[in-house]
User: Fold DUF3526 domain-containing protein from Pyxidicoccus fallax.
Amino acid sequence: MSMLLRYEARRLWTSRASVAALLGVLVLGLGAIALGVERTGQDAELVTLREQRLAEQQAHLRTSHAPDAELGLVLYYLSLPTVREPSPWTAVSTGLWDVYPGSQPLRLLGLVPQLHALEPDNPVRQLTGSFDLAFVLAFLVPLLVIGLGHDVLSGDEDLGTAFLVRAQPAPVSRLVLLRLGVRAAAVAALVLVLLGAAVVWTGSPLDARVLYAAFIGLGSVALWFLVVLLVASLRRSSAFTALTLVGVWLGSAVLVPALLNLGLSLGFPVPGGIQLTLTQRQEMNAGWDKPKRATMEPFVARRPEWASTQVPEERFSWPWYYAMHEVGDASVEAPLRAYREQLQRRNTWAEHLALVLPPVNVQLLFNRLAGTDLGAQLAYRDSVIAYHEQLKRHFYPPVFQGARHASLDYDAIPRHHFRPPEPRLFPGLVGLGLAVLALALLVPGACRRMDRAVS
Assistant:
């Protein structure tokens, strides 16, 4: 057996096509890591730039507005950054990072139009996705497995060496398992090299995420080699085996996900943020033509602590102006909540359906690991909503009490803080493990089928 093992290993490494395929995926994986590191570096620079711009803006406001200027006027121009900083794993799995902006300025004005700016700003990238290491591991490595293993049994018929296989004292199934084991070891080593390079290149800490990433990558390799074994056990031609395996990959990676995505879009329709923004703007702009009390009454119903605020009917006032923005937001409060819930339902169903689509499941697992999935984006969006409310609670008292610019302490202005939620990996990991186990249970039957065909 050790002689056969050495022979199969030498056969693999002397095959120019096999070595070229392994090296090709290695180069693509390293290139994907390089692109991811470059993207996250640009995002980190953007965070620094926004902080610099905030300091410059505050310095400008100090000099361009007199100390006795109305505070409401100064706050109209104040723009504060909200930041979702990339993690080291963002370079590995970009996910929705290139689709949704990771940093967004926020003002004290209406929230809904500003939330719309958190929607996808790159529809082309949303359609095509990003080229990253997760894409290589989820979609290209399975093709490598198919290329290396499709002729593991039928290749002897093609080369005219099948009689040598039948002459071996060991069962044919054992030889096939040995061949696939050698190829699986090579691909597994490649996956570990790429993940190791990613950890070193991105400076990721050696924590549980590294182990999760290794489990996901190696689990995908094991699953696809089991698929290769089961199809190869049918003992058809190499062309038939290759076409069948490519069909399985195409169905699970492209066709079925596209159909399911269409079904989810139809089953869980989500109104665009533009519709909510237009409704909010119409309600707010209508306030200019209404009596001031028509704006203040619904505002006071929401914030009774300002019931004693006196707003002049005959002229503009900043308390009325900010109240008008809040009333505009309130007009779409229920649709906005339904919008978020619908997105969450669609995401939950997508995660459940991905459990039966290994490439999609692997991709989503890496996205969750990196915090670039839709769940993380929704959590960031929720943090922006909470921060906007925090700003209103901080600034409304001085604005409604007629404070002046001199009273503004720029250093005491609340800052946005976002802590990414812990990734929900358990369902996807269990789904991947159960898929591997289910296919492994079919291996004994496949081995008996191969041995019977020879005998």
User: Anything to note?
Assistant: The CA atoms of residues 80 and 197 lie 37 Å apart. The chain is about 70% helix and 0% strand. Confidence is low (pLDDT under 50) at residues 121-128. The chain has one domain: 1-246+370-455.
